[in-house]
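Researcher: Re-running this chain for the archive, since the previous output was lost when a drive failed. Same request as before.
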Amino acid sequence: MISTNELVALALDLATDGHRRLLGITGAPGAGKSTVSAVLAGALGDRVVVVPMDGFHLAQTELERLGRAARKGAPDTFDAAGFVALLRRLRDAVPGVTGTVYAPEYRRELRNGIAGAIAVPDDVPLVVVEGNYLLLTTDGFAPVAGMLDQTWYVEVDEDVRIERLAARHVAFGKTPEAAHAWTLGSDQRNAETIAASRGRADVVVRLTVP
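Model: Regenerated structure tokens:
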């Protein structure tokens, strides 16, 4: 089990070696990726910016046009090429030259991404990239792992993850019945896809719930 202090120390090492670094935080939906990212953001302050992959969700209207709305969150419902392009821009940033790079942010209440919502100044040494499919080798995500300096895989007890995920769906408008059906259906298929990439991670972060 790796402690929170150890995680912060690992992130600090990346943030203080004199180069822009990208740290990936991945894991199944509800595993705690946002929790780990928030811990790092709180500890490192202005030395880090968190950029979630979720900003590259295809728009709800486009998913409906494609007939993929029922599988929203699956690998092929993201703009993987756009995500890869953003990571390249973030990696190649030169302090005082590149300027601020803007990333999109997903707004659950709108069911859509918002362009230009996250500012990443060119002098920020560490970008935490959070997302489900950072270690995937299909659906356009294959280049991602090679652009990350480290990738951490976050996991938690499966019953906790499922309960947490269902509660999130309820909070954003689904009935309890629909939330559990989505969690154990579409979300579970995505979770199994993500779990298959676990062995490619540099660090496995096992979260415990009090």
